[in-house]
Amino acid sequence: MKKYLSIVLGISLLFIQCSKNNDDVAPIVQKELPIVQDFMWQTMNTYYFWQSDVAALGDDRFNNKTEYREFLESEQEPGKFFEDKLLFSEDRFSFYSEDYKELTKAFSGVSKSNGLEFGLSRFADNNDVFGYVRYIIPNSDAASKEIKRGDLFTGVNGTTLNMANYEELLFGDKDSYTLNMAEISDNLITDSNREVTLTKEADITENPVHISKVLEVNGHKIGYLMYNGFTNEFDEELNEAFGTFKAAGVTDLVLDLRYNPGGSVNSARLLSSMIYGPYPDKIFLRARYNQKLQDQFNDADLISYFSDKTQKDSPINTLGLNKVYILATGSSASSSELVMNGLAPYIDVIHIGSTTTGKNEFSVTFVDDIDNGNVYDPSREDKINPDNQWAIQPLIGRNENSAGFSDYTEGLAPDIDLEEDLSNLGILGNIEEPLLKKAISEITGVTAKMDFTVHIPVKLITSSKMFTKIKDNMYMDIKNPLPLNKE
Fold first, then answer.
1. CA distance 188 to 185
2. What residue intervals traverse the membrane (predicted)?
């Protein structure tokens, strides 16, 4: 990065015009700018990936300070201002938060949750909705209740779920609700009399290294890792899991990202290094920003390489594989896709499951800290404007692999198409669980008499993770924030 990047945002200053020659003339005081909207516009004008495609973000959009202020005041609600005035029409993923502290805690794997992770699907013949349990977060309220993977529910507090009410019933303000359970009989989902009451608890921490085990099948030592979020606070635990694989002599790996919506780009880089190798001279990704910023960087600023150590300087435990089997679905997004795309030029990536989300842009958390380029830095909490607690998480760039490929907005298609089956979701980590079983059959070459027929395929509408603060976000760490020169 060049030592200084001068971005003039003079229109966002507070100007006070006073008469210098006549003490009897009262000073003309310019109205103060709306703090949150000003912060949002400054940041988006500088960093937003589609800055040149949004007329309101143009460098020459406003002729004077009055026009700029009137624009900021045109929408009093900051959230609507961000969504309606600043976002590109094709942007599916940028978002805001009224409380940056809540957002940054979520990126650390901490959230208010009852511990139930589930998907939602729609009945074929009407607008009614049902849910199915994907997994339970350990040490949560759900972990203490009679509910498990594969269980179904069709209602909340006695009200049948449908397309119009599921969001309010399941993700509304209430901390507690009762699920009306269902079951499958003759390949039909029918209501049962069972109920399960769940309560959200504050500061539940999810370790994304959900399952890590070594499977010995037909003379093969297979590592199985279910990884449910790229959370950099757990990079050491991830590295330890690969240390166990390495010590056990694992020669094949099944990486389960089927419910992983993404997270830290750096964690994706480290995971890929654990799979492929500690090669700090080989390109993992190349970042591409908006043209205004792209011109300010050199290759060293844009390229990230495979790594030989974690951020805490622990040596990377690597398996040095030339092939990896990745279980991925429509719920696999951003950093999950980044791992698949980043490894593809170097090793065979066998994708089993269904087409992924298709999120190839990355974002950064921005807060009102002008001296740090508005980039959030936990060590600068006391520098954030105390009058503005808002944060924005806009898409600011796109990651290419070493071959220059990044065009997967329609998702990454599977090599082996196999949807999850509601009538047989199986037990995660068990060799009979269908997607893992398929991967094992590919590794061992034993496929005779195996039936992979899907009787009730999952047709996903959304999932519980899409209603968390971080959703399917892929975020980068900016080591050298771009200064915003307000002159």
1. 5
2. none
Q: Are residues 264 and 129 part of one domain?
A: no
Instruction: List 355's β-bridge partners, or say none.
Output: none
Task: Judge whether 181 lies within some domain.
Answer: yes
| Cα 239 to Cα 342: distance, rounded to the nearest angstrom | 19
Q: Looking at the 3D structure of the chain, how many domains does it have? A: 2
Distance separating alpha carbons of residues 451 and 134, to the nearest angstrom:
22
Could you give the C-alpha distances from 274 to 216, 316, 450, 463, in angstroms and in order?
Answer: 21, 6, 32, 29
Co-location of 189 and 308 in the same domain = no
| Residue listed under structure tokens 């899907």 | 454
How far separated are the first and last CA of the chain, in Å rounded?
22
Residue type present at position 209: V
| Domain identity same for 137 and 214 | no
Shared domain check, 217 and 199: no
For residues 143 and 252, state if they share a domain. Answer: no
Tell me, yes or no, whether 249 and 125 share the same domain.
no
CA distance 129 to 357: 21
- Global pTM? 0.88
Query: Residue 440 corresponds to which tokens in the numbers above?
Result: 């094992």
Q: Evaluate whether 355 touches 411 at the Cβ level (below 8 Å).
A: yes
pLDDT of residue 438: 97
On whether residue 142 sits in a domain, the answer given is yes
Separation between Cα atoms, residue 272 and residue 356, nearest integer Å: 18
Per-10-residue mean pLDDT, the chain, length 487:
36 34 46 91 95 95 94 96 96 92 84 94 92 97 97 98 97 95 93 96 92 96 97 96 98 98 95 97 94 83 94 97 98 96 98 95 93 92 96 94 95 97 96 97 87 92 89 70 57
Is-contact 279 306, C-beta < 8 A?
yes
Residues 283 and 314 in one domain: yes
What is the DSSP pairing of strand 395-400 with strand 116-122?
unpaired
